[in-house]
Design goal:
about 80% helix, 6 helices, mainly alpha
């Protein structure tokens, strides 16, 4: 159950981060006549990002209540992997070879830590 809570927490946190990026991109594309903060706040992705990050944080607090921080914390790296994968395949960002290698190292670390 603890690992499930970690994954759900990471999912919501990652979704929140990606929604922030989408909202910022949409706001940047709007007419510069209005203030940037106003353009950000009218994006529905901004509000879904707040909700996602809040849910992720609450779930993460539950995880920390139930697990040792030294076991739980390294799993946050899964969020890095997810952000890069979604950035590449959904947002169409270019990911360098060095980042792919880093992703492999992160994945290896997650597997090693999960087995301890």
């Amino acid at each position: 159950m603890d690992h499930f809570l970690i994954l759900v927490s990471i999912f919501f946190t990652t979704a929140g981060q990606l929604l922030q990026k989408i909202a910022a991109t949409k706001a940047a594309a709007m007419s510069p006549k209005s203030h940037f903060l106003k353009r950000i706040l009218i994006q529905h992705e901004t509000w879904w990002a707040f909700v996602s990050l809040a849910v992720g944080t609450i779930l993460w607090l539950v995880v920390l209540y139930r697990m040792e921080v030294s076991k739980a914390f390294p799993f946050l790296s899964i969020g890095l992997v997810l952000v890069i994968l979604v950035s590449r395949y959904h947002l169409k960002e270019i990911i360098s070879d060095k980042r792919w290698v880093g992703l492999g190292l992160i994945g290896t670390g997650i597997v090693l830590i999960s087995q301890s």
